[in-house]
Amino acid sequence: MPAVENTVLICAGGACISAGEKSVKGVFEETLRKYSLENVVRVVETGCMGACDLGPILVIYPEGVFYQKITPENASRIVEEHILKGRVVEDLLYVGDMGDLRERPQEELPFFTEQVRIATRNLGVIDPLSIDEYIARDGYFALHKVLFEIGTDDVIEILKKSELKGRGGAGFPTWMKWDFTKKAEGETKYVICNADEGDPGAFMDRAVLEGDPHSIVEAMTIAARVIGAQKGFVYVRAEYPLAIERLTHAMKMAREYGFLGENILGTDFSFDLEIRIGAGAFVCGEETALINSIEGKRGIPRVKPPFPANRGLWQKPTLLSNVETYANIPPIITNGGEWFSKFGVEGSRGTKVFALAGNVKNTGLVEVPMGITLRKLIFEIGGGVPGGKKLKAIQTGGPSGGCIPLELIDTPITYDNMKKLGTIIGSGGMIVMDEDSCMVDVAKYFLEFTVEESCGQCTPCRDGTRRMLEILERITSGEGTMEDLHLLKDLGENIMATSLCGLGQTAPQPVISTMRYFWDEYEAHVKEGRCFAKKCKSLTRVVISKEKCVGCTACSRVCPVEAISGSVRTPHEIDPEICTRCGSCLAVCRFGAISKVSP
Amino acid sequence: MAKIKSLEELMKIKENAMKGLKMRDSGKRGKVIVAMGTCGIAAGAKDTLRAIVDLLEEKGIDDVSVVQSGCFGLCDVEPTIEVHLEGSDPIIYGHVTPAQAKRVVEQHIVGGKVVGDLIVKRGEL
Questions:
Q1: Residues of A in contact with B74 (CB under 8 A)
Q2: Which chain B residue has its CA at the smallest distance from A108's CA?
Q3: How many beta-carbon pairs under 8 angstroms link A with B?
Q4: A383 and A523 belong to one structural domain
């Protein structure tokens, strides 16, 4: 059988079928047979490609040429010109929004071209189990430089010039942390890597540990040399078994090569690493709780000051940074501080890894220079909101962050700007929400998380967040009052001002920020019992239109709770008491007779 | 492995490993890199990896190595594999199920023709 040379995708979505896809396909295949090409060209009918107004659509691979509005007549032209003679049929090409021809949609996606990969430089490039491949990409050269070519003060100077700030959330200047720990009194010091990544929707630390574990080993060894530590710990959450496995292997290899253990690179400097596995408490991502956990104590935060730089692990000076921060260290030392600070903008230098999640087309990890606008990040790199839906808001910084509404997406992402908008960059989680998201419900979701994860040590966080959640539950079930709204805001501000650690100090943030930008939604829930997005179950009903329903029974057959009644060819009815608002019936109704309503 | 003590030794490893990464003088015609982060594995990368290894063996192809790497960021299109044959740009494919892996092996590795509909990216990361 001859090898297939071209694959032709014909969109067979509903819209394209009604636009004449079947006859286009018929003529296309007939023409292929006419030229005996049926065995080298594979014709595939696909599901809806999404550009329904351009149908019928046809895409020819391997080139990825996109043809639009095909008629049976020009279908044969495409076979004769494109397939047979290799000439693109210009007048049928899809013209993009910018008026440019899009011959090869797969190439040069902004997803790749806009990225600057520093912390993620080796992800997907090297074999994480091969130390040699890490070395091939300049790995351990920074360690060599620190041991033989430059002094420890020079390292601090390089970090200062780089303006690198902690990437775990707080954004504290990294050089200062190193400098404080270096200057702290004491023979015994420790280096810790915080890999207890707990924010819902953030997974860059896991990706780095899984894909490039040596970058952490190298960075921590450099840190140990600079501050004068003999021992280090990587605190990884138990939910990351693959990260633990790869890091363990990396440490073993580093010891064999003499990058870890006694007399590193033949010098008198000795340092070794151990892994500590976190048992899954979110609060252990807080540095002092993490330190308690390593000591074998219950993971609850300590009062600061004293800061870990002076009294950390076992009361000794301790340098504690996040995975992504460490991953930036070796290239900064190799290339210099100025090289790193070239990226980004004033006050927010370098790059940041963001985890795109939620209602965005390209979900995944992207590393971009700081100062990029949210619009560029979401719409160009992220590919926008799928399903033709409108963007409503972006939640940044996880449970400690807030929401940014559509109107503000032209804001450049910097530490200062995010603070002004009432949110944080945090660890880099970006949850994109479309118009179907209820902002009160979103706030409730994050608060449920923090209530569950509060360690219970201090009253504002333990009791306060629970009271806030109760109020939110009242609001979303239509029992809230305007007084509740004001109480919610007051309570939130008090909790933020009086909690002991970062968890409590930021837990009300999602509520406060959604109240700031979506006050009308909160008010509608209370005053009118209305949920804009028709998400809140108690405020929403699913109804069948008597006029439109033909009694096909499709809905009653899919209803998982048997809430729909009615006999064949007579309009059906939904019992709101039984209905769970799951929406299954909405999806199967072919007559548009079912809708969700909120008064 | 003796412990490394000098820059020269480090450079030597780098140069040797570079050959592997770039495939020059490694005696291989190319390599297939399977992204094996948690996202890839959850999407079925282990089955894909096994399918590729089996297919290459079945077809007696021994000049293409199969290696693993981490997540390269576009988790949405996992499992992803990169096919890098000597003398041509690396191609990253997405949504590579074992069935699609067969197409990649037959069409790209054997036939030398890229599988257009699976391409996520052409060229170096």
A1: 111, 362, 364
A2: B121
A3: 153
A4: no
* Residues A152-190: tens digit of each pLDDT: 999 999 999 999 999 988 899 999 999 999 999 999 999
A446 shares a domain with A299: no
CATH number of B27-122: 3.40.30.10
- Do A467 and A207 form a contact (C-beta atoms < 8 A)? no
Look at A124 and B16 and tell me if their CB atoms are within 8 Å.
Answer: no
Please say which residue of A434, A464, A490 terminates a domain: A434
| C-beta atoms of A366 and B6 within 8 A | no
CA distance B97 to A477: 44
Out of A37, A65, A92, pick the residue that ends a domain: A92
Number of folded domains that form chain A? 5
To probe the interface with A, which of B76, B88, B115, B122 has the most A CB atoms within 10 Å? B76
Q: Tokens in use for A274? A: 């151990």
Domain residue spans of chain B: 27-122
Domain carrying residue A197 = 131-340
Output DSSP code: residue A41: E
- Does A112 reside within a domain? no
- A578 touches B at CB < 8 Å: no
The answer to whether the peptide bond before residue A412 is cis (omega within 30 degrees of 0) is no
Q: Do residues A319 and A416 both lie within one domain?
A: no
* A549 within a domain of the structure (yes/no): yes
Q: Are residues A219 and A353 in the same domain?
A: no
Q: Where are the beta strands (DSSP E) in B9-107?
A: 30-35, 64-69, 81-85, 91-93
> Do A407 and A498 reside in the same domain of the chain?
no
Q: Give the DSSP H or E segment for A541.
A: strand A541-544
- Residue A275 sits in a domain whose CATH number is 3.40.50.11540
Min Cα–Cα distance to chain A from B76, Å = 5
Q: Do B106 and A63 touch (CB under 8 A)?
A: no
Per DSSP, the residues of B93-115 read: E-S--HHHHHHIIIIIIIT----
- Using the Cβ of A416 and the Cβ atoms of chain B, whether some distance falls under 8 Å is answered with no
Mean per-residue pLDDT for B1-9? 86
- The Cβ of residue A524 has, within 10 Å, a number of other Cβ atoms equal to 18
A361 close contact with B: CB closer than 8 A: yes
CB pair distance less than 8 Å for A266 and B1: no
pLDDT tens digit sequence for A470-513 = 999 999 999 999 999 999 999 999 999 999 999 999 999 999 99
The CATH code of the domain that includes A430 is 3.10.20.600
Residues A140 and A167 in one domain: yes
Are A367 and A451 part of one and the same domain? Answer: no
pLDDT-based confidence at residue B23 (cuts at 50, 70, 90): low
Residue A113: inside a domain, yes or no?
no
pLDDT value at residue A51: 57
Supply the mean pLDDT for chain A.
Answer: 91
Task: State the pLDDT confidence band at A367, using cuts at 50, 70 and 90.
Answer: very high
Q: Which of B92, B116, B115, B91 is nearest to B102 (CA)?
A: B115
Contact B6 A266 (CB under 8 A): yes
Task: Classify each residue of B26-52 as buried b or exposed e, where b means 16 or more C-beta atoms within 10 Å of its C-beta.
Answer: bebebbbbbbbbbbbbebbbeebbebb
Task: Tell me: do A334 and A213 sit in the same domain.
Answer: yes
Q: How far is A110 from chain B (nearest CA, A)?
A: 11
Amino acid identity for residue B53 in this structure: V
- Is pLDDT above 50 for A420? yes
Q: Assign residue A468 the CATH number of its domain.
A: 1.20.1440.230
A363 interfacial to chain B (CB closer than 8 Å): yes
